Structure formats: C-alpha cells, structure tokens
Amino acid sequence: MASIAEALANWAADLEPGPDDLALAQRSLLDTAAVALAARGDPLAGIAAGLPDAARWAAVGHVLDFDDLHVDSTTHISVVTVPAVLAVGGDARAYLAGAGVMARLGTALGWSHYSAGWHATCTAGAPAAAVAAGTAWGLPAERLATAMALAVPAAGGVQNAFGTHGKSLQVGFAAQAGVRAAQLARAGATADPAALDAWLELVGGSGELDLSGPAVPGGLAIKVYPCCYAMQRPIAALREVRHQVRGPVRAVRVRTPEATVKPLIHDRPTTGLEGKFSLPYAVATALLDDYPDFAAFTDEAVRRTEAQALLRQVRLEHTPGADGLLTGEVDIEVEHDGPTLHVRLAQPPGAPSRPPTDAELGEKFAACGADVPDLLADADWASVRDLLRRTFPRAT
C-alpha cells in the first residue's frame, strides 16, 4: 500500500489543471501579492529582511492576516505555496500542486489537530511547500514524496504565536522548509516517505485522503477585513445593524459554536496584532469604525478608550458545533438605548459560497495601496516574483 506521501506525490505529478483551477491560481497569486505589498511599511518587513526569499515573502504576506484561507483544512494555503513557487521560478501548475496537497493534508490532520493548538498552516504547509517547489523544478513523484518526508522535521507551529510576529514568521519558516526539502530531494537526498504517515499519526491526523475533485477542493475564502478569519463573520454580522445603534452600548451577547472562535485567544487586546485575534475587539471595531481596515488594527485603535470600554460589554456563549470556523452561524444581540438589535449570519462575504466579485477584489487591492492595482495589472508569476524582489530585497 502506498504511503500518504506517495499518494499525494502521484496526485501532484499527474495534475492537469482545468480552467477553474487556473483561475483560482491567478486570483491567489494576485491576492497574496497585494496583501504582501500592503505590508511594505510594517516593522516585520525590516525584521525579516535577512531571511531567504520564500520565508521573507511568506512572513510579510501573512503579518497583516489579510491572506486567503482554505476553510475545510483551516490553513492559509496561498501565503505558503505562492512564495515557495515564486522563490524557485515556478508557475500556476506548481502552485496548484502544492495548494492541493496542503488542502488535503490539512483536512487529513483534521479539526482535532487544530483545536489541540497546532498552527495547521505551518504543519500542513511545510510538506505542501516541498511539493510546490519540487513541482516547479519538475521532480518526479518519487522525489516529491521524498521532499515531503524531508519537510517533516520542520512541520511545526503553534497557536500561542497568534497576536505576535511569531505567527507570520513561523509561516515563513514553513515555506522555506519546503523549498529546502525540495532542494535536498532534487540533489539526491534519501528519506522514507512513510515518515509523513508516522508524523500524521503523532500529531493526531486521520490519514484519510480524498484525491478527487478540483485541485483545491472547496475553493478558498478571501478575507474582506485584515484580521483572523474567525473574526470575519461577527464583524460582517454587526455591520448589518451598526447604524441602528443609539446611545451607549450596554451589552453585546455573541452566540456561536466554540470551534468558530478557537483562534481568538485575546480577550483584552492592547496591540494591533492582538486585536486581530480577539472576539471582543471584532465587536468593537464593527460598531465603532465605518470600515474595519488597516487603521482599525493599529495599536492606537485597539487602545482607544471607547474600544476598551466596548470590550468589557461583550459576553460569549457557545452553541453546539465543533468542527470548523464556519460551523453553524453567529447570533448576536446588542443592548443599547433603542430596542435590542438581533442579527444572525452563516456565511460572511468572501466565503467560498460568497466569492468576491472582481469589483470587490479591486477594492481590496486598492485598500492595500493606491498603486497596487496598477502594479498587479496583467501580472503573471514571473512579474510578481520580480516585483517582490524589488519591494522586499534580501538584506546582506
């Protein structure tokens, strides 16, 4: 019986992308590049300047937490695989091979893996980046399986890093680990593909794979707000009623399945990064800000007196459902000087079932920088690679 690494490697080597797959790859390339360009002024751009290309570009592409997400696997697929592909001169097919492996490996790891505190973007990301880079170099299935096994020692990352630079840096480490593993496999290094099976069991994965369907099963969710995906739904729900709020808010009750708020580990955030992983701050920015954009997630915005006061009015109640960030629905009540407001929402804007329009994507790209839409007009993999090299040169 083939190992999991061999099964995934054979799938990746045989991949023949269809038009829908290629359209997803192009959108992922542009979305990842736009979000990275938005981080040009972020302190992490300087901190990570000495890292290799894949690590550097993945770190800056994730620090704003505005990059896409594969909901079923709870992984940020593109911010790992796009930089890995760009770093080695790959194209859309290499991206889709890595993205498809990451989606399936992350799904096999399962919700129990994520809920235990692992950062699945990193654990599933390192082997997937190995496939992405190896595919770009034309490695056969046997070598791709070896590359995945060689990436196992670096397949780590934990949720305790959320709200710090550690989160985006460990994503960068995963991308670079995959490139390094593919380089070693390309050079002839040996490894037992069954190492991936053993690792999967050790970290609580099921080992069940579904190799059918499109390259990225279920598609990708595009973020509308620059914060953790677990905050997208409550923010979107509250924005539907925020203009009806009269006077001071006395209480906000949020009912949602426990799984949907698992990454939101900061109840009393005091920095912008912590605010990106805070349910109470999701409530605060949704009610206080006309649009929760980058300015809403600065240290100053999170420390606003009115925001800190609102944090203390939020009460969370868990409802049944425990297997993903979009399980069930969010149900929110707001007590204020008027009648109690009540809103429910199942699928936020940008979810796979509510894909963004071209106009919405254009608005997002413009929010990432006034020049970003022009920089990405007619962009392909080679031009984006050159753009990132100019924008984020490696420090010597």
From TrEMBL:
Domain MmgE/PrpD C-terminal: 225-373
Any GO MF annotation of the entry: lyase activity
Gene3D superfamilies hit by this protein: 2-methylcitrate dehydratase PrpD
Pfam families: MmgE_PrpD_C (PF19305), MmgE_PrpD_N (PF03972)
Domain MmgE/PrpD N-terminal: residue ranges: 58-197
Highest taxon above the source species: Bacteria
The family this protein is said to belong to: Belongs to the PrpD family.
Protein name: 2-methylcitrate dehydratase PrpD
Organism: Saccharopolyspora hordei
